[in-house]
Automatic annotation (TrEMBL):
Protein name as catalogued: Uncharacterized protein
Organism the protein comes from: Mycolicibacterium iranicum (Mycobacterium iranicum)
Lineage, highest ranks first: Bacteria, Bacillati, Actinomycetota, Actinomycetes, Mycobacteriales
Length: 87
């Protein structure tokens, strides 16, 4: 693998003489730049996954709190059961 990868325009590929290339025809891309770009894209995707996971976790916690508020208290049930048993 080379340190740099050369990308040529389409009209340069069709030309017969390869010695008459101008610097404007060749775009040199560093392998490090390509790897950095893919790493940045990967990091952005991972951030999105983490944000979705965190939002889902927050939603689950909110739902648990809502359910816990609606759930009757155990001790309240036990007290009512004792009172009904005494009657």
């Amino acid at each position: 693998m080379n340190e740099h990868t050369c990308t040529l325009h389409t009209d340069v590929h069709t030309r017969g003489d390869t010695l008459s290339r101008s610097p404007a025809d060749v775009a040199v891309i560093s392998v490090a730049e390509v790897m950095l770009g893919s790493a940045a894209a990967s990091a952005a995707a991972q951030r999105g996954i983490v944000r979705e996971w965190w939002a889902q976790l927050v939603a689950i916690r909110v739902e648990r709190r809502r359910i816990a508020r609606r759930r009757p208290d155990y001790f309240e049930h036990a007290a009512m059961a004792r009172e009904m048993y005494r009657l």
